[in-house]
Amino acid sequence: MESNSRPPAGTDFDTARQFARQLRVDSIRSSTSAGSGHPTSSMSAADVLAVLVGRHLRYDWDRPHSDANDHLIFSKGHASPLLYSIYKGVGVVSDEELMTGYRRFGSRLEGHPTPVLPWVDVATGSLGQGLPVGVGVALAGKHLDRIPYRVWVLCGDSETAEGSIWEALDKASYYQLSNLIAIVDVNRLGQRGPTELGWDIDAYTRRAEAFGARVLTVDGHDLAEIDDALTTAADGGGAKPTVILARTVKGRGFSEVEDHEGWHGKPFPKDMAVRAIAELGGESNLVVRGPLPDAAAAPAITPSEPSTSSFMPRYSPGDKIATRKAYGEALTALGDQYPNVVALDGEVSNSTYAEQFAKAYPGRYFEMFIAEQQLVASAVGFSVRHYIPFASTFAAFFTRAYDFIRMAAVSQANVRLVGSHAGVEIGADGPSQMALEDLAMMRAVQGSTVLYPSDATSTAALVRAMADTSGVSYLRTTRGAYPVLYDEDDTFPVGGSKVLRSGSADAVTLIGAGVTVHHCLAAADRLAQDGIQARVIDLYSVKPADSRTLHAAVAATQGRLVVAEDHHPEGGLGSAVTDALLSEGAQTLRLAHLAVRELPGSGTTEELLAAAGIDVRHIESAARALLAEG
Amino acid sequence: MESNSRPPAGTDFDTARQFARQLRVDSIRSSTSAGSGHPTSSMSAADVLAVLVGRHLRYDWDRPHSDANDHLIFSKGHASPLLYSIYKGVGVVSDEELMTGYRRFGSRLEGHPTPVLPWVDVATGSLGQGLPVGVGVALAGKHLDRIPYRVWVLCGDSETAEGSIWEALDKASYYQLSNLIAIVDVNRLGQRGPTELGWDIDAYTRRAEAFGARVLTVDGHDLAEIDDALTTAADGGGAKPTVILARTVKGRGFSEVEDHEGWHGKPFPKDMAVRAIAELGGESNLVVRGPLPDAAAAPAITPSEPSTSSFMPRYSPGDKIATRKAYGEALTALGDQYPNVVALDGEVSNSTYAEQFAKAYPGRYFEMFIAEQQLVASAVGFSVRHYIPFASTFAAFFTRAYDFIRMAAVSQANVRLVGSHAGVEIGADGPSQMALEDLAMMRAVQGSTVLYPSDATSTAALVRAMADTSGVSYLRTTRGAYPVLYDEDDTFPVGGSKVLRSGSADAVTLIGAGVTVHHCLAAADRLAQDGIQARVIDLYSVKPADSRTLHAAVAATQGRLVVAEDHHPEGGLGSAVTDALLSEGAQTLRLAHLAVRELPGSGTTEELLAAAGIDVRHIESAARALLAEG
């Protein structure tokens, strides 16, 4: 077999073999020294990675941020000993760092890879996510960057039980991502015993082929077979993603544990480690490098700043416009000025209004169909390639992708999520379509930004702000059309709020966001008829919340607050308000918290807001009750 | 073809044909009268459903809760006009209710089906969920009930883009669910245009077969072909689930919309409806019933009450035991006394300790491998069949199934979820494995119960309580071993708390749950050395929270509260405390809220708790700072 392979780089097979031994030895040494980690899951994939890194991966290790580099994603993030041993083997991490840093406090060599390391694109460790993100990176490479980098993803066999793996392969074949190569380390053993499919390579083959992949199968410990498969995979000439099924042995190289159950996620005790290293031929400090990319390759799309400061859509106060529609218009305007804005949607673009962008910039719109996990994962992949992705679906259906959203934050990805059709406001479709947990879910994400505008003008401003917002940002839009509240030149900084009514005689504060802002205003009008002055705050920035304005309102209205939200009572607007207020010193609060507490059904918007107790009448009543208490 | 089919019931083809017409007419009438709904998605599946309901579905419509009935799940829940028209057609819903109730406020005929209707097992409408839940029902039928009911699931073609569909088929074939029949209505058109695969029946066939299903393909408008396929599917003789691919036409029966884009989710205007109904032959009130089940069939497992009151494991104060281990022991003890307790896990049962139950009761343990969506969906399916399911995985990975958890609440399912390895406490594995959003996520679920015990004794008590808790309940367990705090005879009601330290001179209240309870106790000890008395509350019931005890603490300690939680600051323990306190009248609070605010890395438990600022030292400092403020 070896004679047939065309070595694409200088690392010969003898060196690759020695490199593979070193990767195993270092995986053992690092995990034993740390007292935790996954040596056996690293050892099964060592041969494949030695050949890949030594002979195929086009990567300038001294320029990890080069646009031309291939991408290497460990979807099986628990094989971090292998990944970090590769970093030692290519000379970018010292043996000392590997031995004293792995899994230690303050070290960048964390238990599972994260982008605190410059060679890591995305955090992995929640299985079934690396491949979907790889699809996003490959989408960018093939359809936007148009650079011939390849995206190599090392998958575990266990993680193919995750539906997200099949969403990923489905989209990879739909978008003809011949630049994507998934290598499945079929080592037969999961955490607690055999995997579902064991070494049934035929079953894996049927599934991957059925989902549109070109499948190559290899003995994952035969370097020449591996090399042939990688050579074929790297051709990029076809219109299909490639899946390499590597039949491997868990713990390969140390006879005491090879293919044994009970050794998942366990470092070897020191005496075993000594025997294993001896069996593998001892420690070494080989440095291996593979081929370099064409450093001149540059993305086809060059980011640029807007050519004008006033390019966003403008709306006239009083006009009735749904914020979801304003989103579509704002996104399209952004797309005109930012060549690197990209939009994705989950087969509801005519509802979210992402279709406006799709029509204007079809080359930068990616339909993810009904696959919300892949929707978010693709956005993360675009973020890896420094695009500005906006991903939209019904707000309720982002719950489908919560693990991906959580991990996007760990990945320090910059992704913008836009959920339409929030709350009971949607009306007749019923509770399955009503996002009533999304604010809680999004607020709890590390470093997130959560925005919920009440009108078209603020929506447009916030969409523009999101383009410059790092981390996970979320915009909640509303189904129905409501009057524009703000003047064209009003500003809406993230972390701000708008005081829509205020005066020196304010007796109570009404706080809303989105649809409830309109009900707060109407309630204030009713109260005013009885001479009760109510301050009204539009808390469009739910996270971070404007604690200064909230504190001022508390001081002005003797702590009397009515918070009305189209969301369950836990973790949403009410929590945003109380968290902001209670973060500084003693506070005396008289809070009426109106939220959706019972399971809603169908009905009109008005019926459902009333039934939930969050409409104008309930806000007015709650304010009067607070005042009656004193 | 018709001559070859063996009619299993009295409804002949002519009647079935007329029934199908009526289903179309009523789908149109109901949605047009409501002004919203999905007539065209109903019309494509009307022929298949007419034959199924008229000739194959074994269902006693007058006894919807009969254990012997087949199950009919509309995974494409938006085809509710079709489902409700069937209910009219079998005579359990009047034409008047259909015409005046559909999608109206207060009606049980909601926009998408929910179990407020006695014939609906689970709420659908979030696509890709009905089939996974059907897998759970079929698991119960085949492996527990051992009654020959069949589970018929109507799927849309668009929803096959959801990975959860493939998780479902994978488990259906793994568990040889020959009692499961998925009917895919391949009508080629999604919401905003063509589906990914269109009418490529071969592509669907390859995928379903690769995932282990027996595939039957039919012209979905040829009643005889349909009948043959349903007859074959119903044999239950094989060891595979069946997938029927029905090639259909969206809007079938009304030439103006047949196979036209732009008609998804749109009722026909009245004039069009008139023309459509005329083309379909006019209104009718046919009543059709199919075969009855064997009413004598009874589940193999009969629920029974515990034979003794003291069967739970008992622990001695001071012993160090991880709450995750106590979970495994408590669950096993429950399993001994409750023959209808069932356990499921996502391939981490040796970490969650569900393996203890699996070893003791292998027939009632179901391995879901790494497929958390299916894990929760299966639990919902077991709930449909009145089992008491406990589903466990790492707490972080329940984020993967949030949409299913949310929908379980809409389904009024009784499911118990148990998440281990919560928070930074887990140590070296790093942030991908750390649940830091789970309390927020679970609290925001409608009607949920959220529990987070600090020791083995309370864990065992709460596991027992969960068996009798309706709705979605969640138990958060901890990786490390900590001392047992409570006496064997202490009680831990849901909604309660434990005051571990209190006295007449309490100056500050320290509130924790789980691991932070131990740090609160240690902080109280340190403060006591300086003569500062601290009240310590173990808020093991995060939702509902014990507002009485919290109010008493606020009153006793002048509003000084330190809340420490191993969770992000949003929506977790801190919110539970402030929500409980602010729900009644004016409150003056001095709150120090210690939570995980920055992105953690790897390290030891002690290092990470300290770095997050939630350990004994920070609790002590926060208490002193509150006291210094006055």
From TrEMBL, chains A, B:
Its cofactor is thiamine diphosphate; Mn(2+); Mg(2+); Ca(2+). Homodimer. PROSITE patterns: TRANSKETOLASE_2 (PS00802). GO terms for molecular function: transketolase activity. This is Transketolase. Keywords: Calcium, Magnesium, Metal-binding, Thiamine pyrophosphate, Transferase. CDD domains: TPP_PYR_DXS_TK_like, TPP_TK. PANTHER family: FI06132P-RELATED, TRANSKETOLASE. SUPFAM superfamilies: Thiamin diphosphate-binding fold (THDP-binding), TK C-terminal domain-like. Residues 321-484 form the Transketolase-like pyrimidine-binding domain. It comes from the Bacteria.
